[in-house]
Amino acid sequence: STPMSSVASVSENTQVSETPKPFASSDPAARYEAGEGNGCSEQRTCANCPAVFSSENAFSAHIHRKHVRRYSCAICPSTFHLKTDLKRHELTVHRKDLAADTHGFRCPNPACSIPKKVFIRRDNFERHVSRCK
């Protein structure tokens, strides 16, 4: 659960479009919405997904938020942008390594159909309790 490196890097599967692409729309309102007419004359298209950006800052933020993975799982090849996502992955996917009684939540409903089920994630537990009435 340590960062892959001190400097975030784009994974080998990530392609970054370095060449700005011109606006394609002839609709003035759509062109303004996309950034033309508000100081931007070019847009950036992400090579990894259909996202399009009217500013270099928005494009760069998208690449780092969606396509750069700084944290890697020590057990499997999964990688994550946020450390909290890695922790959640470790707790949910690799939970067999954990003692279930020391970490997790059990349904307090005596009529629960799965009374021995231990929920590792609080959000899944809360969703179960709200439906288990």
UniProtKB/TrEMBL annotation:
Q: Where is the composition biased (Polar residues)?
A: 1-18
Q: Which SUPFAM superfamilies match?
A: beta-beta-alpha zinc fingers (SSF57667)
Membrane spanning residue stretches: none
Q: Which GO terms describe its molecular function?
A: zinc ion binding
**Residue ranges of domain C2H2-type in the record:** 71-99
Note the superkingdom of the native organism: Eukaryota
What keyword terms does UniProt attach to this protein?
Metal-binding, Zinc, Zinc-finger
Q: Write out the ranges of the annotated region (Disordered).
A: 1-40
- Name of this chain's protein: C2H2-type domain-containing protein
Say which species the protein is native to.
Karstenula rhodostoma CBS 690.94
The upper taxonomy is: Eukaryota, Fungi, Dikarya, Ascomycota, Pezizomycotina
